[in-house]
Design goal:
The chain is of the alpha+beta class. It has 8 helices and 4 strands; from the N terminus they run ββββαααααααα.
């Protein structure tokens, strides 16, 4: 069984018969983060389709040769699986995943991609925080996380790392609130330094910020 995100049908579940056989023509289609056009046979009233063939567009070879890129690509795909309902198409989500994988294939690994991708997926899923910078993150930094090409998110100063850690924390807070069990790839959102050290605010301020955060992270 494979969970796939399609342009016209959203997230769907497919069977790939015979993929365990060494000479299976469908084996490559069933691998993680593969971009392909697949022919699907679906019986009347069935909820799971059967892949019968298709055309491979790309398997992202550069990603597969780099462990950090591979982990980040798996994180993108797991978020799409966990935060999207079945058979609810959203072309913008499809293009977010496709473009993010294409950037990861063509450019260097960028750790800011993990929170940026999730914030954009949250926006497309109705948990809109793009217009509401949280935890005192500057508006231009917040906008860049939501709008800038992933490979251009080069944050290197101590202050920028603080803001990036805050964005990671917001993402983890959201996941803890809405997922029943943790992501396998949640390590992509690990903080570079402890949040308490990076925020440099007092406990009452932290509590107030988290209270505001809970109010904002609600479905639109």
């Amino acid at each position: 069984m494979v969970s796939a995100y399609s342009l016209n049908h959203g997230r769907i579940v497919l069977r790939f018969p015979g993929v365990n056989k060494e000479q299976s023509k469908l084996k490559a289609f069933s691998e993680p983060f593969v971009n392909s056009d697949v022919r699907i046979y679906l019986r009347t009233n069935a909820s799971i389709g059967c892949a019968t063939g298709g055309k491979l567009n790309t398997v992202y070879p550069n990603i597969r040769q780099n462990v950090r890129k591979t982990n980040l690509a798996l994180y993108f795909c797991e978020l799409m699986h966990r935060l999207t309902p079945e058979q609810n198409p959203n072309p913008n989500k499809f293009y977010l995943l496709e473009n993010s994988l294409a950037e990861l294939e063509s450019f260097k690994f960028n750790e800011a991609s993990a929170p940026a991708f999730m914030l954009r997926l949250m926006q497309l899923s109705g948990y809109g925080v793009e217009e509401k910078p949280l935890l005192n993150i500057p508006a231009d930094f917040w906008t860049a996380l939501h709008k800038e090409n992933l490979h251009n998110l080069a944050f290197t100063t101590a202050e920028e790392i603080i803001y990036l850690n805050k964005a990671r924390y917001i993402c983890r807070r959201f996941l803890n609130k809405y997922l029943t069990y943790p992501l396998n790839t949640v390590g992509e959102l690990d903080l570079t330094v402890p949040l308490e050290e990076s925020t440099r605010v007092t406990s009452p301020q932290v509590r107030a910020a988290l209270s505001a955060l809970e109010e904002v992270l609600q479905p639109a």
